[in-house]
């Protein structure tokens, strides 16, 4: 008979060791759960860096699990963030300006694209409008409290038109259609892409694009509630690093970037070619945005869109702490 040298205590210790090893291996082999953030992203080519960062895996490379929650327009994007439905949001500076009068609990952490031709003024060959000088008394559809409205007022002022003579008709961007022009009550549409292109295509040979390129520049920005910035500083920096990678990809491989956006937004290749040259994809946060916000706020008050009150301190709402960690040359504010 073979006598074992294992005592009950030794056997128990061995079993315990094996169980501990198995548990440790199980934990080590379990996929690491990445920090999660959600972005309310406007369905527009202006949001290209965000879509590309997701498609190319840049968010995950930076240790993030990002969920994109798509909406139409920066207003809805901001509202989703403000209501707690998303951690970050994308919007134009006009949306930032209007909301700053109601709330100071959010900040702009970066601009990631600018364009001087994203918003269009479109009419038909049947109308008498041929230049912005003809806008006096014309019915123009705008999306209120957005870059669409601010753009129209800027163009009018540049052409010596009293803005009180503008006959603005408020509507959502997706309702700015051929039918609205055909109704006879609206002679022109002030709208951003891709809706401008869609209306132009629907009108065909009857489409008339009023000359406004270069008259107004708009930026698209990344926003967050201040509470989110306080709770997730490392994740915010990682998000900006991913967007910076996406901007580099756009510059390095524009053809590949166009394909990603075309597929993501289900847009025609011809539209991407139409709009892409107007976009400057680059991360920044500086004086130009600050000046733009201040000018927009003064316009909003003078036009009656906002009741007279002290202007917000926009400088305090542009938080470049995070951007400076990846682009030290970011301007001081």
Walkthrough of the structure:
With 333 residues, this protein is of the alpha/beta class. It folds into two domains: 36-116 and 217-325, D-Maltodextrin-Binding Protein, domain 2; 119-209, Periplasmic binding protein-like II (D-Maltodextrin-Binding Protein, domain 2). It has helices spanning 8-29, 48-55, 58-61, 74-82, 93-100, 147-158, 178-182, 195-203, 226-231, 233-252, 254-265, 269-275, 287-302, 314-317, and strands spanning 36-42, 65-71, 88-92, 106-115, 119-124, 139-142, 167-170, 188-192, 207-209, 218-225, 279-284. The longest helix has 22 residues, at 8-29. Residues 47-257 form the SsuA/THI5-like domain. It is found in: Periplasm.
Which keywords apply here?
D-Maltodextrin-Binding Protein, domain 2, alpha/beta, six-stranded mixed β-sheet, 2 domains, 14 helices, 333 residues, 43% helix
């Amino acid at each position: 008979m073979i006598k074992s040298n294992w005592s009950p205590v030794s056997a128990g210790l061995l079993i315990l060791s094996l169980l501990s090893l198995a548990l440790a291996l199980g934990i080590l082999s379990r996929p690491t759960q990445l920090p999660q953030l959600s972005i309310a992203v406007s369905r527009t080519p202006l949001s290209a860096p965000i879509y590309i960062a997701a498609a190319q895996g840049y968010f995950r490379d930076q240790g993030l699990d990002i969920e994109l929650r798509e909406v139409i327009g920066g207003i809805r994007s901001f509202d989703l963030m403000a209501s707690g439905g998303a951690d970050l949001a994308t919007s134009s500076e006009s949306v930032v300006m209007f909301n700053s009068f109601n709330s100071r609990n959010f900040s702009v952490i970066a601009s990631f694209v600018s364009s001087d031709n994203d918003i269009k003024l479109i009419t038909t060959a049947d109308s008498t409008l041929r230049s912005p000088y003809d806008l006096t008394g014309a019915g123009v559809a705008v999306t209120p409290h957005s870059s669409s409205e601010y753009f129209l007022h800027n163009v009018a002022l540049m052409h010596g038109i009293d803005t009180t003579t503008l006959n603005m008709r408020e509507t959502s961007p997706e309702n700015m259609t051929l039918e609205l022009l055909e109704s006879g009550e609206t002679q022109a549409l002030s709208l951003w892409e891709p809706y401008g292109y869609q209306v132009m295509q629907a009108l065909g040979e009857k489409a008339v694009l009023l000359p406004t390129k270069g008259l107004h520049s708009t930026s698209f920005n990344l926003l967050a509630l201040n509470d989110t910035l306080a709770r997730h500083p490392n994740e915010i920096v990682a998000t900006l690093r991913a967007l910076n990678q996406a901007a580099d990809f756009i510059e390095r491989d524009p053809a590949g970037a166009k394909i990603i956006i075309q597929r993501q937004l289900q847009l025609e290749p011809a539209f991407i070619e139409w709009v892409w040259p107007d976009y400057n994809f680059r991360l920044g946060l500086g004086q130009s945005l600050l000046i733009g916000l201040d000018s927009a706020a003064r316009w909003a008050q003078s036009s009656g869109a906002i009741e007279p009150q002290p202007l917000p301190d926009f400088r305090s709402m542009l938080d470049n702490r995070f951007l400076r960690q990846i682009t030290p040359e970011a301007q001081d504010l």
